[in-house]
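Fill-in record for Glycosyltransferase family 4 protein.
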Amino acid sequence: MTRPRVVLISMYVGHEGVPHAGGRYLLELQRLLDAETDLTMLTVGNQLNHEAATRPGIPGRMLLLGHEAGRGPVRRVLNRLAHLADTTWRHKRDPGMPSAAFVLGLLRSKEARAAVQAADIIDLQYSESIRLVRLLRRINPSARITGTFHDVMSQSFSREPQTTEDERRYWQGVARRSRAREARMVEQLDEVLVFSQKDADLLGNPLHTVVHPPLSDGAEPRHERADEPVVIVVSYLARDENNKAALWAIDHIWPLVRARRPDAVLRFVGGGASDELRTRVADLGPDGGVVLAGFVDDLFAEYAEASAALVPVLQGAGVKFKTVEAMCHGVPVVTTSVGAEGIEGEDLYAGLADAPEALAASLVSVLDDPGVAQLRSDRVQTWAQGVYGRERFRDIVRSTWIG
């Protein structure tokens, strides 16, 4: 049987040890498609992806496009214009635009265009890749094109801080333009995939396929009562919304917890901490009860030693993988409404609130009586391991991408 020819386009690459949840999703998808299809992955040739290309887990055939060395004045000018578009226009006028360097690289590369022209399926990951659907249709009118919305970006943009009138006008304008583009993208795709029914409802018709990210292999042990009152926050802190959430938790939630539990420790696990966050933690001193653990190789051990998991995000959109991951490890979860968004189940949380006082009270309740919270989390763990398991994910991918 001939294997389908698949072109996977993403501005990010999954690999072993990737520090963010979206990358871990891509790693699982890449591995499955690499094993069961004739896969070519196209990505932007920035420094981050060049480094990723040297690590285990990347597809057997991957092309890095854009940022190529210019040969002659015309190419040097084009490279410079692409760089300016990515660093100025993209960040100011259109934060959701695809990488101009990638588009230029795709148009330049005969190998990449040939792969797109020969593809049976073109799969687009993230909104910025899905923005290329019209261009890809012109290159290959007969391919089946699928798009996975990791987030509904119009919702994410609408949640950016808007404390001044200028900020309000700017972000509302960005969100409005993004909603219009999302509607056009949905119309042009053969299949739309989302991580939750909430995102499907935001994007509207036609019907979408909900694919739950594969966050559990079923090997996570039952969570035992932790010896110490440790609250864990797992996130890729280089992302702006995660950095802001960390600062908010330190300033507004943690002092309320420490007032009632002076022995409690707030432990941030994940790379990419900003200078501002490092300074804030350093200013608290060794007795402040806040630790920046950084990137760790063994998340199992971190979850095992935690009494509770806090997901304090106030911005962003889409399913928060960090919330589901904690559930899969059986750790009681305290989170905001944004952190719980798109996770459809009943009575899943040890605390669900947006006010710092309510979040702090929930954390203290778990620390004071971990047995009661653990009874719920044992049930939630079984549910999460089933809904967000790898086998279920693979079945959906095979039926959607492979047929």
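KEY FINDING: The chain has 18 helices and 13 strands.
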